[in-house]
Write a structure and sequence with these properties.
Shape: elongated
CATH class of the largest domain: Mainly Alpha
Radius of gyration: 23 Å
């Protein structure tokens, strides 16, 4: 099937913009340069994006796998669903361009705080909302306490992910897979099923001593 010309032009611009942002930096890349590199007119580009920051945002969302609504997870197993969300990763095919662009994006966000806020919101909000849905299902089904603090629970679950992301930059080989660990620890701490919590913690239920005659 032949792709519509507008879709093809959209992809050409995104790919050209990513290449130029990586090579020249964000500040030094103009819309004129993107138009020339992509072979798409500036008029067409502005039909798709309001400005360079809108184009940059979509390009970054694409290489981080955030350009579409994340698929809801509902297997009925709360721990498994939390693990799935916490272990989601960006597409491997974009690793190289993502690694090149990340330092540039951080610097650009520092000097353009409004863009930085929008970027952080678009990155952090999808997993937060997915986790909230899962936790609410757990409360509704009686698997989690009715008085569970949803916001605090999200912080507890995402905190280890942020820790791993920050400190893995120093030594990527030591980056632990904290998704299953975080989900498991949370489940053992908050699951309404006490037997599961005790088994998960490795605590043996004491057996009554037999009375001597």
């Amino acid at each position: 099937m032949v792709r519509p010309r507008s879709t093809e032009a959209h992809e050409k611009v995104l790919n050209a913009a990513l290449e130029l942002f990586s090579e020249r930096g964000i500040e030094s890349t103009s819309m004129d340069a993107i138009s020339q590199a992509s072979g798409v007119s500036k008029a067409t580009i502005y039909n798709h994006w309001a400005d360079k920051e809108a184009l940059l945002l979509e390009a970054m969302l694409m290489i981080h796998g955030l350009d579409r609504e994340p698929e809801d997870v509902d297997t009925g197993d709360i721990q498994r669903d939390l693990t799935t969300v916490l272990t989601r990763k960006p597409p491997d095919k974009c690793d190289a361009v993502r690694n090149r662009l990340t330092p540039t994006l951080i610097a650009y966000s520092a000097f353009h705080p409004e863009f930085g806020r929008e970027w952080r919101h678009r990155v952090t909000e999808p997993p937060r909302q997915c986790i909230k849905k899962i936790l609410r299902r757990g409360v509704s089904s009686g698997q989690l306490p009715a008085d569970l603090d949803i916001e605090a629970s999200v912080a507890l679950l995402l905190g280890p992910m942020l820790y791993a992301h920050i400190f893995s930059k120093e030594d990527p080989s030591r980056k632990p897979d904290l998704g299953p660990i975080s989900a498991g620890a949370f489940w053992r701490a908050h699951s309404q099923n006490r037997k599961e919590r005790i088994a998960g913690l490795g605590i043996k239920k004491p057996t009554p001593k037999s009375k001597g005659r």
